[in-house]
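re: the backbone from monday

yeah here it is again, tokenized this time
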């Protein structure tokens, strides 16, 4: 999961830098959307792992 977070954050940084170079505002919106989706995916995965570990308490 850490690798997926790293790749998504590198893509966000790339989009922000590309926005600064090109001046097209749409890249910033895509970067914000990707960052939000990556954050929600991390939270969902952590919740899944937390629930999966809790089932072994017999």
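seq for it, each position gets an aa:
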């Amino acid at each position: 999961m850490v690798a997926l977070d790293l790749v998504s954050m590198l893509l966000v940084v790339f989009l922000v830098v590309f926005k600064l170079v090109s001046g097209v505002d749409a890249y910033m919106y895509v970067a914000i959307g990707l960052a939000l989706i990556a954050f929600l995916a991390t939270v969902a995965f952590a919740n899944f792992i937390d629930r999966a570990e809790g089932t072994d308490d017999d």
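The two ends are 28 Å apart (CA to CA). Helices lie at 2-22, 26-54.
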